[in-house]
């Protein structure tokens, strides 16, 4: 197998193009379970009929794990938004549409969002009081079973030259409450300093999905706590400030 | 503080928690047998111990949580011990707590078992004391789930209350607490509990309800305080500041927003500024917004902090004596940070254009953050009672406080002495809670209600006067004038009687007495509502003060209905005819009668008994439906039994009405509601009918003695069934008569034997429901009838057969045919009517008193047997 062009470099993983395939090559330090789980997530999402690159192989190349999938030709929504700032609103609307079409799907075998969040709160370095409050809040959140991407961001949406949208990177996928997924997207925008985009996104999401803003906001301390686990040290203070909330009494 | 005298295991894992629950269950089991005196001694000792420790506990709470004010927490601890003790010291919570021996009614309080109590971080010691005292008073064991931020002080409070309780005699280990709180342990404790008492945030309360165990959970508050233009501004502002500053704003009932009327707004503003309120400028308002709310959630860093400290966190400074930070804001929507619950001395101030605007704003604030909790109004109730009423009507909160500091007022017993003292305030279904009261001992008890079987009360009602003996009519009519002071008499009778001239002596007598009178003779058999309406019209024209009904059942019933229409023209007969199970519990309240006219009944046949009954039947000519009316308001004021008016009845009428009277007496005797009074009348009637009916039938016009006995028997039977009611024979006869056009008496005659056999069963499919009807005993009752008329036999079965034989012979003697078929009804016509007849008979008003509750198929079977029955052999 020859690896040609480098498509993306992320922490501990690199994505190459190999003809009509994409090869995601993991560093040796990467957890085998996480890699297999990512492939399994992707395979499960394929079955929902959502437009995603299909998995072809999970293999080892030169002693490193790799997931081989379809290569999707095109531009990410992120790069389109950057290239054509005047069309930003239009792309944002498309972005929310794609997210909502995903939320209309169910995938009963994916791990549950609330279980994952609960685990992440435990793993966070927040103090016991804060964890207690967040657990209490999480517990009271409604149980849903919608497909949630877990890192839905314009950089993970590929638009082909034909205009077809593909959703990439399913390593954080869960099933659960769509508002949590939206809170995660909002947080992701905020973390990259795109506050205006974050706000525009949230307004659109709430309007298009007929959701109250408070309902999405209620998830924010939880997704912030979750993100603080294995997060970047420079983001930590910001995330903890989001997580340190009191419930009303 | 000293450690308890026994060792306690630290609870920091699920295993330890499980072990703790088995200890708690054992303690609860032992404590459940304590007497009220023992419990009260423990309650007192525990309250005293908590009270004594109020200052160290307050200090410990502030030190550990970093929130609130020691001096204010002292008040809360003091309140939780002293006020709770005082409120419940004399309350009965053990064993019999209420007894009404005469009614056979007792309420017995039993403990619940082990209660899991979630303790909030805002009131970590006072809520612990409060809940433990409630548990002690109600003989429950309790596991406390402290908040992790307040785990040590909550545990300390529990430790010293437990120590005092045990020293005063409570079982060891009656309380325990989680030492290392986590949501997993709290969750597990909720699942183990017999009841959960959850105070805390909405998440905790939801978890309590989701645990599957019964829960008393209470919700969040977002109290608005509306200042009406009649409010005493000085008092109102001080009241709000006093409340808002208390424990740095951590009481859930605290005011979160003041909504001031436009006319007093500036004055309110000045008054706040003068009393330690700090009015934020636009920039500071924005800084506070950014600090307070993070993505719609309350920043934990501001909870329970002082106003200057919060200002400093927000990036500006205020004078050190500042009590409360006040933001003048407009929006009441959740996007406005000031519209939220703030758990700190930060207050929103709104200007209301008028009272309606103030209500809208308050309503919205309550809806978004404090559904069901508390709302406050400052007003002069004497000057603006209507606005007070509108506020009460609009606020969906379980506490509505008037001119009262909400923090101190909401917990009860401080500013109003009927509101129960409590640190757990229910928010009703609006707040997703199971209670809307201030939680107290009654919520922690199981109440057993002991209900001993009692007899249903019964009464005996009859017209105040019944005249009898041949020729009594003259005297009775004189009484209309002399005793009733009547002037105008409206005579209702049927056409035949009027045209035959039989009424002439009666009318002459009225004339003689100088009574103004008129005769309404347009009454047919089976009178209709339209007939009655015409009669009532005539009454309204004539305006009588006595209605004199002369005739058979039809005339008397029609006259009763005219009487109702005359007195109450708007009566709805549909409602009036509604079936009831108990005449004294019916939904419809019958209008009072006798305001315009008295009712006097003069029967001219011996059967219906209507002269002494509170019943009337009227037909709706449009639907063909018969309305049976029954209410003691329809009881005649006088009945006149004079055989001068009866001598010339034709034999067929004598036979049918005589048998009708016999079935009245038999059914009244068999009724579940029969009494000694009705029994005597019923038996007397039966004896007389059996003896005198044949004589009347054969030679009535020449046998005044038989006529009189039969007339009296008919009235006696009427008095019996007016009070004991009838049974399924009449139910079935009503429908049989209606479907196949048989005289009522004949229909009853055809059915009575079938019904007697049916009722006599000692193991009926269903017995009737009435407290004094203890077991199916109708066979013996029929046996008693047989004995009363001189029939003998070795058993009740035999006596019943004899009785049925006698009735059969009687029917034969008076020309009644043995079966429906013999009356010329074809089998086809009968069968096609059967289903409907049976269903309607089942639902007839008379069915309810029958000693055997009939199934529809059983009614059908009786109808079938009756259809082609052979005549009993002579």
Offer a few descriptive terms.
heterodimer; A: 249 residues; alpha+beta; Phosphorylase Kinase, domain 1; Aminoglycoside 3'-phosphotransferase, Chain: A, domain 2; 2 domains; 5-stranded antiparallel β-sheet; 3-stranded antiparallel β-sheet; 10 helices; 46% helix; 19% strand; globular; B: 874 residues; alpha/beta; Aldehyde Dehydrogenase, Chain A, domain 1; Aldehyde Dehydrogenase, Chain A, domain 2; Rossmann fold; 7-stranded parallel β-sheet; 6-stranded parallel β-sheet; elongated
Could you characterize the architecture of this molecule?
The complex is a heterodimer of chains A (249) and B (874). Chain A has 249 residues and is of the alpha+beta class. Chain A contains 10 helices and 11 strands. Chain A has helices at 32-48, 77-83, 88-103, 113-123, 128-140, 178-191, 195-209, 213-217, 220-228, 236-243; strands at 6-10, 13-18, 21-26, 55-61, 64-70, 75-76, 146-148, 157-159, 165-167, 174-176, 245-246. A 5-stranded antiparallel β-sheet of chain A has the order 1-2-3-5-4, covered by helices on one side. Chain A has a 3-stranded antiparallel β-sheet with strand order 6-8-9. Chain A has a two-stranded antiparallel ribbon with strand order 7-10. In chain A, β1 (6-10) and β2 form a beta hairpin. The termini of chain A are far apart. Chain B has 874 residues and is of the alpha/beta class. Chain B is built from 30 helices and 25 strands. In chain B, the strands form 6 sheets. Chain B has a 7-stranded parallel β-sheet with strand order 10-13-14-9-8-15-16, sandwiched between helices. The longest helix of chain B is centred in the C-terminal third of the chain and has 24 residues, at 676-699. Chain B is elongated and about 115 Å long. The A-B interface holds A 128-133, 135-140, 213-214, 217-218, 220-221, 241-242, 244-249 and B 120-122, 147-149, 181-184, 187, 199-204, 206-207, 210, 220-222, 250, 252, 294-301, 303, 334-335, 340-341, 343, 369.
């Amino acid at each position: 197998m020859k690896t040609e062009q480098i498509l993306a470099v992320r922490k501990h993983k690199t994505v190459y193009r190999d003809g009509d395939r994409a090869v995601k090559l993991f560093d040796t330090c990467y957890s085998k379970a996480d890699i297999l789980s990512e492939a399994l997530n992707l395979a499960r999402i394929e079955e929902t009929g959502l437009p995603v690159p299909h998995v072809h192989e999970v293999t080892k190349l030169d002693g490193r794990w790799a997931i081989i999938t379809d290569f999707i030709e095109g531009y990410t929504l992120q790069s389109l938004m950057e290239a054509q700032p005047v069309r930003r609103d239009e792309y944002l609307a498309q972005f929310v549409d794609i997210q909502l079409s995903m939320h209309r799907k169910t995938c009963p075998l994916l791990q549950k969002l609330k279980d994952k969040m609960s685990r992440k709160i435990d793993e966070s370095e927040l103090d016991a009081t804060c964890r207690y409050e967040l657990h209490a809040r999480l517990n009271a959140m409604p149980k849903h079973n919608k497909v949630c991407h877990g890192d839905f961001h314009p950089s993970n949406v590929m638009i082909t030259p034909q205009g077809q949208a593909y959703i990439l990177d399913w390593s954080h996928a869960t099933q659960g409450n769509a508002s949590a997924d939206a809170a995660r997207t909002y947080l992701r925008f905020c973390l990259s300093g795109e506050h205006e985009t974050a706000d525009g996104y949230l307004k659109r999401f709430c309007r298009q999905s007929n959701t109250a803003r408070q309902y999405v906001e209620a998830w924010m301390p939880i997704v912030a706590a979750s993100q603080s686990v294995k997060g970047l040290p420079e983001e930590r203070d910001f995330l903890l400030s989001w997580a340190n909330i009191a419930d009303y009494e | 503080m000293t450690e308890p005298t026994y060792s306690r295991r630290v609870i920091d894992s699920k295993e330890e928690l499980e072990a703790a629950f088995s200890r708690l269950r054992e303690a609860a089991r032992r404590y459940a047998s304590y007497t009220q005196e023992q419990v009260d001694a423990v309650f007192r000792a525990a309250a005293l111990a908590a009270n004594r420790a109020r200052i160290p506990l307050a200090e410990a709470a502030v030190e550990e949580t970093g929130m609130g004010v020691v001096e204010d927490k002292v008040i809360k601890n003091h309140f939780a011990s002293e006020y709770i003790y005082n409120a419940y010291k004399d309350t009965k919570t053990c064993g019999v707590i209420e007894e009404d021996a005469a009614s056979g009614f007792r309420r017995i309080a039993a403990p619940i078992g082990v209660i899991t109590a979630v303790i909030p971080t805002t009131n970590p010691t006072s809520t612990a004391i409060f809940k433990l005292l409630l548990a002690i008073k109600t003989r429950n064991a309790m596991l406390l789930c402290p908040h992790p931020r307040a785990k040590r002080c909550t545990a300390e409070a529990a430790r010293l209350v437990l120590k005092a309780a045990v020293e005063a005699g409570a079982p060891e280990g009656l309380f325990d607490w989680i030492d290392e709180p986590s949501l997993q342990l709290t969750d597990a404790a909720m699942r183990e509990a017999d009841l959960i008492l959850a105070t805390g945030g909405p998440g905790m309360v939801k978890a309590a309800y989701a645990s599957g165990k019964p829960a008393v959970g209470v919700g969040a508050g977002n109290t608005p305080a509306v200042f009406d233009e009649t409010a005493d501004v000085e008092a109102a502002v001080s009241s709000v500041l006093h409340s808002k500053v208390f424990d740095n704003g951590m009481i859930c009932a605290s005011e979160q927003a003041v909504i001031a009327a436009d006319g007093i707004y500036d004055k309110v503003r000045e008054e706040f500024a003068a009393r330690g309120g700090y009015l934020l400028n636009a920039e500071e308002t924005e800084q506070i917004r950014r600090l307070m709310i993070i993505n719609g959630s309350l920043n934990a860093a501001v909870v329970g902090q002082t106003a200057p400290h919060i200002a400093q966190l927000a990036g500006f400074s205020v004078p050190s004596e500042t009590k409360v930070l006040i933001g003048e804001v407009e929006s009441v929507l959740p996007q406005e940070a000031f519209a939220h619950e703030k758990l700190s001395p930060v207050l929103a101030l709104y200007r209301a254009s008028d009272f309606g605007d103030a209500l809208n704003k308050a309503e919205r604030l309550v809806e978004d953050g404090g559904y069901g909790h508390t709302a406050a109004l400052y007003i002069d109730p004497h000057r603006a009672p209507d606005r007070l009423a509108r506020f009460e009507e609009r606020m969906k909160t379980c506490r509505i406080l008037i001119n009262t500091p909400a923090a101190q007022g909401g917990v009860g017993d401080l500013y109003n002495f009927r509101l129960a003292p409590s640190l757990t305030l229910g928010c009703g279904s609006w707040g997703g809670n199971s209670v809307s009261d201030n939680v107290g001992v009654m919520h922690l008890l199981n109440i057993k209600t002991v209900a001993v079987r009692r007899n249903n009360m019964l009464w005996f009602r009859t017209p105040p006067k019944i005249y009898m003996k041949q020729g009594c009519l003259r005297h009775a009519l004189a009484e209309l004038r002399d005793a009733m002071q009547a002037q105008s008499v409206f005579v209702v009778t049927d056409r035949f009687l009027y045209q035959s001239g039989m009424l002439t002596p009666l009318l002459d007598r009225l004339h003689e007495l100088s009574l103004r009178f008129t005769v309404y003779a347009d009454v047919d058999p089976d009178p209709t509502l339209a007939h009655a309406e015409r009669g009532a019209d005539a009454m309204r024209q004539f305006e009588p003060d006595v209605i004199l009904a002369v005739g058979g059942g039809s005339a008397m019933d029609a006259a009763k209905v005219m009487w109702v229409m005359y007195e109450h023209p708007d009566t709805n007969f549909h409602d009036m005819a509604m079936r009831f199970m108990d005449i004294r519990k019916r939904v419809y309240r019958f209008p009072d009668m006798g305001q315009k006219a008295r009712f006097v009944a003069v029967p001219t046949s011996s059967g219906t008994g209507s002269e002494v009954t509170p019943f009337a039947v009227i037909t709706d000519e449009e639907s063909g439906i018969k309305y049976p009316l029954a209410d003691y308001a329809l009881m005649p004021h006088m009945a006149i039994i004079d055989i001068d008016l009866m001598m010339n009845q034709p034999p067929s009428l004598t036979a049918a009405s005589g048998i009708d009277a016999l079935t009245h007496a038999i059914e009244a005797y068999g009724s579940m509601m029969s009494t000694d009074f009705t029994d005597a009348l019923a038996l007397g009637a039966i004896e007389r009918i059996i003896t005198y009916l044949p004589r009347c039938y054969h030679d009535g016009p020449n046998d005044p003695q038989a006529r009189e006995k039969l007339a009296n028997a008919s009235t006696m039977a009427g008095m019996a069934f007016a009070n004991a009611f009838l049974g399924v024979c009449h139910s079935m006869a009503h429908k049989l008569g209606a479907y196949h056009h048989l005289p009522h008496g004949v229909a009853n005659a055809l059915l009575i034997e079938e019904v007697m056999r049916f009722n006599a069963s000692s193991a009926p499919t269903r017995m009737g429901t009435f407290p004094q009807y203890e077991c199916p005993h109708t066979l013996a009752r029929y046996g008693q009838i047989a004995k009363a008329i001189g029939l003998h036999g070795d058993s009740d079965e035999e006596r019943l057969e004899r009785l049925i034989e006698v009735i059969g012979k009687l029917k034969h003697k008076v020309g009644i045919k043995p079966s429906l078929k013999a009356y010329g009804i074809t089998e086809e016509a009968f069968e096609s009517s059967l289903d409907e007849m049976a269903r309607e008979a089942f639902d007839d008003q008379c069915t309810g008193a029958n000693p055997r509750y009939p199934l529809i198929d059983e009614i059908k079977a009786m109808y079938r047997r009756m259809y082609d029955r052979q005549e009993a052999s002579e």
